[in-house]
Predict the 3D structure of the following.
Amino acid sequence: MTQGLFWFRRDLRLADHPALARACQSHDRLLLVYVDDDADGPFDASRAWLRLSLGKLGDDIRARGGELHLLAGDPEILIPALAVAAGATEVHISALHEPKAAARDARIAATLAGRAIAMRRAGGRLLTDAESVLTQSATPFRVFTPFHKAARPTWRHRPREAPTALACSPLPSSLEGARTTLDAPRPRWDKGFWATWTPGEAAAHARLDDLLPRLHAYPDARDVPSVEGTSRLSPHLHFGEIHPSRIFDVVQRQGGIGADKYIAELGWREFAYYVLHHWPASLHDNFNPKFDAMPWRDDPAGLEAWQRGLTGVPLVDAGMRQLWHEGWMHNRVRMVVASWLTKHMGIDWRQGAAWFMHTLVDADLASNTLGWQWVAGTGVDAAPYFRIFNPVTQSRRFDPQGAYLRRWLPELRGLGDDAIHAPWERGLRVPGYPVKPIVDLGAGRDAALARLAALAK
Ligand SMILES: Cc1cc2nc3c(=O)[nH]c(=O)nc-3n(C[C@H](O)[C@H](O)[C@H](O)COP(=O)(O)OP(=O)(O)OC[C@H]3O[C@@H](n4cnc5c(N)ncnc54)[C@H](O)[C@@H]3O)c2cc1C
């Protein structure tokens, strides 16, 4: 009888799971574990998601006769200890692509090899092999469109059914002390999330099913924050509750006007990981080093007003409040709030990115960093160069009746359809809401351009 160890990470599903399928084929019994290595960290929104997602995965495993063990500790110590104590001949994983996680996996593989245990990796979280999709001169792409053109033809879906039964082994008694439960946050600031979201594999597939009848409308509806025009699959993708190859396959087979646009958005996620793979320092450094000399403003009070949705700019404030209440923000509004922070307020993109990582249920190092650097103008593919979004123009264009603003800013509900986008323009005062924007729109734009001009000198 052979014993294997399966280590779940951000692949919290049973179907379309090459690593799990291989582990099931290779062993009579599996020890299934998830290791929480962030038990003492801040309680981020994505952790609230993780907690429920693991609960759902545990239920799905139990329904197949198995058991998922939740442990807390350092995987570099726990995984080898578990493998040895269980008598496992192999440890199975699917790949993580962030530089730190990949380096840690390599160290664990080396430790295991020293104990004659193999680490076997199959599949990952992506559709693209970053090492083989290159320009004609064999260098990495820096611009999205040619990247996508080269990458998309390489994407494949190899469907795999979820295992019908899982023969699992108990946790070795010597590791009992590592057991954990992922507790809910105190206070329960995640409560508002669950009216919108259901974590887990079944819910991820339901979201995909829900997208299909409205896929044809996606190219336009995706820009309107007051309607359900997008798929909201991002947190499911982040936790690997569904593999992007399944989404790609289903959307491509349905075809039609929205399919290409939707697949291009999946391409942005691929590009984010691709950039991280080839330029790992872009996680914290400006992709374009020219911006290292940017005189960012130190403005803790301004940053807090932005975080709380009290900048006095309705579209920015609505977005920041949606983020706090739902753990998610519409993509167009993400661009607007990020532009406002980095351009009009002159605050370093890294401060905004850190707040997003704390508050988003889909917080994802690769996509978040790419998004912030793209908007700040410091990243790859920053075209048009140094775009400064006008939040009032954006608001009037994409939320003309103010439906999104009214939903998230109850204090402005009584304002008319035009006044609501910029109450200060008509001298309107609304109790509890700033009288005017924290930064004048024109002056903020001029200051951003002046900071940029200073860099060029
Ligand atoms: C400043 C900023 C920060 C961001 N931070 C994150 C983040 O932490 N995590 C995250 O998943 N996305 C992030 N995004 C990208 C994008 O906003 C979200 O992926 C999208 O809003 C998720 O909603 P959806 O699933 O309904 O998207 P849909 O429109 O349905 O798109 C389908 C999928 O494509 C991918 N996708 C779409 N747009 C992008 C994009 N611009 N970049 C990368 N992938 C994309 C996502 O996986 C998404 O689920 C960020 C964008 C910006 C501008």
Observations:
- The CA atoms of residues 11 and 407 lie 34 Å apart.
- The two ends are 70 Å apart (CA to CA).
- The pocket of flavin-adenine dinucleotide is lined by residues 222, 230-234, 237-238, 265-266, 268-269, 272, 331, 334-335, 338, 356, 360, 362-364, 367-368, 370-372, 375 (CB under 6 Å).
- The first strand starts at residue 3 and ends at 8.
